[in-house]
Design goal:
The complex is a heterodimer.
Chain A (H helix, E strand, L loop, with lengths): L2 E5 L2 E3 L5 E8 L8 E7 L3 E8 L6 E3 L7 E6 L4 E6 L8 E8 L9 E4 L3 E5 L2
Parallel strand pairs in A: 2-11
Antiparallel strand pairs in A: 1-3, 3-8, 4-5, 4-9, 5-6, 7-8, 9-10, 9-11
Chain B lengths: L3 E4 L2 E4 L5 E7 L7 E6 L6 E5 L3 E2 L7 E6 L2 E6 L9 E6 L7 E2 L3 E5 L1
Parallel strand pairs in B: 2-11
Antiparallel strand pairs in B: 1-3, 3-8, 4-5, 4-9, 5-6, 7-8, 9-10, 9-11
Chain lengths: 122, 108
C-alpha cells in the first residue's frame, strides 16, 4: 500500500525538542524528495522543510531555520524532522509529503501522511 | 517570499453549479502552481499540478488554468463530494514554497 505514516508528535514545553518520523511504503522512497508541511488555525498551511531524494540538499522556512533539521535514511525508507528550541507558535499538525515526480527538485506534493499533532505549551 | 492571495475565502454554491477560485502570486511563478482539496481531519489531496495538469484519478470536472501571476481552479459541475476547502501552492524554484489562505466551498 502506497502511504506515508508520521509519528513522534506530542506535548512539549517551550524550549523543548521533538523528533518526528515519516515512514514510507509502497513506492521507491529513494527516488522522491520529501517535505514537511504544518497546519495550524492561525497560520494555515505552511511549508516547513525539504530534503532532496538523495539527501544532498535541504531547505527550510525562515521560521524554523536554525532550529529544525530534516533528514532521511533511504535504507530504512524514513524521513525525520528534528525540532529543537520549540516555540508556542510551532504548535500544529505536521504532515510529511512526497514530491510528485521522481528525481526532481521542485514539484507539487502528491502523497501526504495523515499528520501528527505537536503542541508546545507550558 | 512569494505571497499567494486566494479568493474568495468562502463560496456558497449548489450542486451542479460551476465554481471558480482564483490565486494571485506576488511575482511570476511561471506555471509552478498546484491546487489541493482538503476535508476536515484529512490531509490535502492533490488535484492539479503545473497549473493545468490533472492529477491521476481526479475527476475531469476539475480544471486549472493560468500562468505568471494569475491562476484559476474551476469545477464545472459541483458534486456533493466537492464541498471542502481548496488551497493553491506555489512551488517556484525559489524557496520558500507558499500556500494560499484557502477557499471554503459551502452548500448554499
Amino acid at each position: 500500500q502506497v502511504q506515508l505514516v508520521e509519528s513522534g508528535g506530542g506535548v512539549v514545553q517551550p524550549g523543548g525538542s521533538l523528533r518526528l518520523s515519516c515512514a514510507a511504503s509502497g513506492f521507491t522512497f529513494s527516488s522522491f524528495a520529501v517535505n514537511w508541511v504544518r497546519q495550524s488555525p492561525g497560520r494555515g498551511l505552511e511549508w516547513v522543510a525539504f530534503v532532496r531524494y538523495d539527501g544532498t540538499t535541504t531547505k527550510y522556512a525562515d521560521s524554523v531555520k536554525g532550529r529544525f533539521t530534516i533528514s532521511r535514511d533511504n535504507s530504512k525508507n524514513t524521513a525525520s524532522l528534528q525540532m529543537n528550541s520549540l516555540r508556542v507558535e510551532d504548535s500544529a499538525i505536521y504532515f510529511c509529503a512526497k514530491d510528485n515526480t521522481p528525481r526532481w527538485d521542485h514539484d507539487a506534493f502528491d502523497l501526504w501522511g495523515q499528520g501528527t499533532v505537536v503542541t508546545v505549551s507550558s | 517570499d512569494i505571497q499567494m492571495t486566494q479568493s474568495p475565502a468562502t463560496l456558497s454554491a449548489s450542486v451542479g453549479d460551476r465554481v471558480t477560485i482564483t490565486c494571485r502570486a506576488s511575482q511570476s511563478i511561471d506555471s509552478w502552481l498546484a491546487w489541493y482539496q482538503q476535508k476536515p481531519g484529512k490531509a490535502p489531496k492533490l488535484l492539479i499540478y503545473k497549473a493545468s495538469s490533472l492529477q491521476s484519478g481526479v475527476p475531469s470536472r476539475f480544471s486549472g488554468s493560468g500562468s505568471g501571476t494569475e491562476f484559476t481552479l474551476s469545477i464545472s459541475s459541483l458534486q456533493p463530494d466537492d464541498f471542502a476547502t481548496y488551497y493553491c501552492l506555489q512551488y517556484n524554484s525559489n524557496y520558500p514554497w507558499t500556500f494560499g489562505q484557502g477557499s471554503k466551498v459551502e452548500i448554499k
